[in-house]
Design a protein that fits this description.
The complex is a heterodimer of chains A (221) and B (214). Chain A has 221 residues and is an all-alpha fold. In chain A, 84% of the residues lie in helices and 0% in strands. Classes of the chains: A mainly alpha (221), B alpha/beta (214).
Chain lengths: 221, 214
């Protein structure tokens, strides 16, 4: 097995072994959605209108919660240090870890989006757009998160600092992510937003392995 | 214990040259003006009181720590990744308690370009063969150390940097580690070892005593 696949396989095995974490995360994601009708009142039309925003924010919060363990556990048990002498570069390892993380955290979140749709009264068309937008935007969010997690990996309270670093940078993804779902103000605007979202996501995914790899290499010194 | 049966007969030749090595950590100079040479089949044992810079020197050699002066590894190919021909055994185990022993070693064999066929012999060597499918979280401190050392065996590499390899091991473990290092040197490997306890090697190794300065 190639080093790249070995990382993906190990991280997915670890995610399965710690299956309770994923379940908690999914419950968190769903509960944030379930809480909103209580917070804004039982106005069905209003809820349906803000539903995409709620789902995006819930996904972002769930991601931030899960991100803490992306590099932290490897740093604590010395694996991260041993990665420096692996047969492949740190950048390759970061890409593999992101693929594994996306499969083991973001994909289950995506599958839970229909529950949000039920709770918040999204119609079927909005739900389909929502899932498409999350599919396009989640790699970008994860890439941002990975940079934040890598920069803060050696800090004791990194779990708190990383979200503060990441959240402001996630604004463009949220803007275009919601633009791609909400009823378009002008014909074609939702399509344009979707393309922008995909573009931002791709750029971030291209940058993240190098930025995170650099941060991880510097964290040891 | 006669050493590792499936160990390669011969490693590619590696040489180490250090000139004027200085290293600063936390604003304090730990190493200064260190120079030495090491060739294939040679071991260097670092001794000295705690905090004198033994681990820092190993980390410099592994390429993990910024330093001034020269550390040159001769013998690596032009296209090889620097550091990809050495193993650094730190005090951290680099193992996942939720995975089985076999899965832990499988991962490191794959990641370090090793051979999965070496996993079973390595586990037997470490006297962990009976526990191969248990999760690593169940191991005792000494067994964790044995598994961490078995990690080096599943991906044979010519250079070993060992930080207190016999910590937490019983006397049989001491002998085992001594035999492994002997076999490693016998195959033309090279080892730098930081250790307080005398190692059970067949020949007396070169020793570098790091003293506290200032």
């Amino acid at each position: 097995m190639t080093p790249f696949n070995a990382i993906i396989r190990r991280d997915i095995r670890l995610a399965i072994a710690a299956g309770g974490d994923l379940l908690t995360l999914l419950l968190f994601f769903i509960l944030v959605g379930a809480l909103m009708p209580f917070a804004v009142g039982p106005d069905k039309a209003l809820l349906a209108r803000i539903a995409p925003g709620i789902t995006w924010v819930a996904a972002l919060l769930a991601l931030l919660l899960a991100l803490d363990r992306l590099f932290k556990t490897d740093a604590e048990d010395g694996s991260l240090r041993a990665f420096r002498n692996a047969a492949v570069s740190m950048e390759t390892i970061v890409i593999a870890k992101l693929v594994a993380f996306w499969l083991s955290v973001m994909l289950p979140l995506l599958v839970a989006v229909p529950v949000h749709a039920l709770l918040l009264g999204m119609n079927l068309e909005t739900l389909a757009r929502m899932m498409l937008a999350l599919l396009a935007g989640s790699p970008g969010l994860l890439a941002l998160g990975a940079i934040g997690a890598a920069v803060t990996v050696s800090l004791r309270r990194g779990g708190l600092i990383a979200p503060v670093l990441i959240l402001p940078l996630a604004v463009p993804i949220l803007i275009f992510g919601i633009g791609a779902v909400a009823p378009p103000p002008a014909p074609g605007a939702d399509r344009a937003a979707m393309l922008f979202l995909t573009a931002i996501s791709l750029v971030l995914v291209a940058i993240a392995p190098f930025a995170a790899g650099l941060a991880l290499r510097m964290s040891e010194d | 214990m006669t050493g590792f049966m499936t160990y390669p007969a011969h490693f590619a030749v590696r040489r180490l040259t250090i000139e004027g090595l200085s290293c600063t950590r936390g604003g304090r100079e730990i190493l200064s003006g260190l120079g030495l040479r090491l060739g294939p089949g040679e071991a260097l044992v670092l001794t000295g009181p705690n905090g004198v810079g033994k681990s820092s020197l190993l980390m410099c050699l592994a390429g993990l720590l910024d330093h001034s002066g020269k550390i040159v590894w001769h013998g690596q190919g032009e296209d090889d990744r620097p550091g990809a021909d050495l193993h650094f055994l730190s005090h951290l185990p680099s193992l996942k308690p939720h995975l089985s022993l076999r899965h832990n070693l499988e991962f490191w064999a794959d990641l370090n370009g090793g051979d999965r066929a070496l996993i079973d012999p390595a586990l037997d060597e470490a006297r962990l063969g009976h526990a191969a499918d248990l999760s690593a979280g169940l191991l005792s401190a000494g067994q964790v150390r044995r598994l961490a050392i078995a990690r080096l065996l599943v991906a044979p590499r010519p250079v070993w940097l060992l930080d207190e390899p016999t910590a937490a091991l019983d006397s049989q473990g001491d002998t085992w580690v001594g035999g492994l290092i002997d076999a490693h040197l016998g195959a033309g490997g090279l080892a730098v070892i930081a250790s307080h306890l005398p190692l059970k090697l067949s020949e007396k190794p070169r020793t570098l005593s790091l003293g506290r300065r200032g």
